[in-house]
UniProtKB/TrEMBL annotation:
Residues 2-125 form the DUF1985 domain. Pfam families: DUF1985. It comes from Parasponia andersonii (Sponia andersonii). This is DUF1985 domain-containing protein.
Amino acid sequence: MKVKSKNPAELQFFIGDSNLRFGLGKFALITALNFSKDPDVVKYKSMSSSMRLRETYLNNEANVRSDELKAAFLNCEEKEDVWKLGLCYLVDGLLMAQESSTKILMDMLSFVENEEDFFNYPWVKAISRENIS
């Protein structure tokens, strides 16, 4: 379980009976996530233009909470959209360790429309379709 930290440069998790703290550098090393450079802002702005998933499954809401994303994923019946919503849910709930009442990163719903670019996004590079299929 992720624990709220007063220090933005560290992540804390409660595992077993221990409160574990990791600096971002150590967390990046452990998870193999790319923290070394910022993404190309222009490229990712163009990736965030699709609103299809938001319009189709999330009532075109401007803000969506993690529990609403989970419900959309669990209730979706379109195979490819189940995959895309599942990726968003995985990133939101596991990699970002969000609580169910936390707002999700809305751009993620657009980024996932282009799977190759989605998997090249720095926070997502550690997972791949082959590893989670």
